[in-house]
Amino acid sequence: AQTVTQSQPEMSVQEAETVTLSCTYDTSENNYYLFWYKQPPSRQMILVIRQEAYKQQNATENRFSVNFQKAAKSFSLKISDSQLGDTAMYFCALIPSEGAQKLVFGQGTRLTINP
Amino acid sequence: ETGVTQTPRHLVMGMTNKKSLKCEQHLGHNAMYWYKQSAKKPLELMFVYNFKEQTENNSVPSRFSPECPNSSHLFLHLHTLQPEDSALYLCASSPPRKQVYGYTFGSGTRLTVV
C-alpha cells in the first residue's frame, strides 16, 4: 500500500527565516508524482510544488524548493525568506503511479510564521 | 478562487436529516473527486468520477451517495449520518489523464452532524 508520512505535526519560525518540512513516502512503483499542498485558514487546498519521480532535478517555485531523495523515499519542502502569508497547513501527497488517480496525503504539518 | 466552487460552506444537520453538498467546476476537467478531511487524520479519498462515471468508491458507507450528472457538477447526498461523519468535505477536479499535474480543490463544506 502507498503511504505518506509527515513526522512534524507543528512547526514555528520567525518571519524571513528558512524552514524545511519533512515527508517520507512508500510506493513500489518507479514512476510516480509528489506534491506539496498548502491549506490556509480559508481551507482551500493550493498546489505549491510538484515533482516527477523520473526527474533527478529538484523542483523550484520562487521561494519554495524541494529536496527529492528517491532512494531514501524522502521529499522535503524548503521555504526560504518565510512570510506571514505562508502560515498554513502543509500536506505532502503522492500519486503512486502513472495511471493512478488516487492522491494519497500525509497527515499534514501546521506551519506558523511569527512576526 | 481556484475555479472549483463548493456549497454550502457550512452545514449543520441532524442524524435524521437529508442534505446535499454541491461541487461545480468550469475548468474543462473531466475527473472529479470527493475527499473527507477529519481532524488529525490524512485526507481520505471517497469517490472518483471520470466523464460522469464512478470509477472508484473507497469503501464509503451507503449513507453517502454521490451523483455526477455531468462533468461540471458533483453532488454528495447525505442521509442518516453519524456524529463521526462531521468533517470538512473537499471536492477536487483534474483534467482527463493529466491528474499528475495535480488536482484543483474547492474550499470545502464544513459538516457538523448533531
Question: Could you walk me through the main structural features you see in this protein, from its secondary elements to its overall organization?
Answer:
The complex is a heterodimer of chains A (115) and B (114). Chain A has 115 residues and is mostly beta strands. Chain A is built from no helices and twelve strands. In chain A, the strands form three sheets. In chain A, strands 2, 5, 6, 10, 11 and 12 form a six-stranded mixed beta sheet that branches. In chain A, strands 3-9-8-7 form a four-stranded antiparallel beta sheet, with no helix packed on it. A two-stranded antiparallel sheet of chain A has the order 1-4. Chain A is globular and about 40 Å long. The model of chain A has no long low-confidence stretch (mean pLDDT 94). By secondary structure, chain B is mainly β. Chain B is 0% helix and 56% strand. Chain B has strands at 4-7, 10-13, 18-25, 31-37, 44-50, 53-57, 64-70, 73-79, 87-94, 104-105, 109-113. The chains are: A mainly beta (115), B mainly beta (114). Chain A binds chain B through residues 4, 33, 35, 37, 42-47, 50, 52, 91, 95, 98, 100-108, and chain B through 2, 31, 33, 40-43, 45, 48, 50, 55-56, 88, 90, 92, 94, 99-108, 110.
Secondary-structure map with pairings?
The complex is a heterodimer of chains A (115) and B (114).
Chain A (H helix, E strand, L loop, with lengths): L2 E3 L4 E5 L4 E3 L2 E3 L6 E7 L6 E7 L7 E2 L2 E6 L4 E6 L8 E8 L8 E2 L3 E6 L1
Parallel strand pairs in A: 2-12
Antiparallel strand pairs in A: 1-4, 3-9, 5-6, 5-10, 7-8, 8-9, 10-11, 10-12
Chain B lengths: L3 E4 L2 E4 L4 E8 L5 E7 L6 E7 L2 E5 L6 E7 L2 E7 L7 E8 L9 E2 L3 E5 L1
Parallel strand pairs in B: 2-11
Antiparallel strand pairs in B: 1-3, 3-8, 4-5, 4-9, 5-6, 7-8, 9-10, 9-11
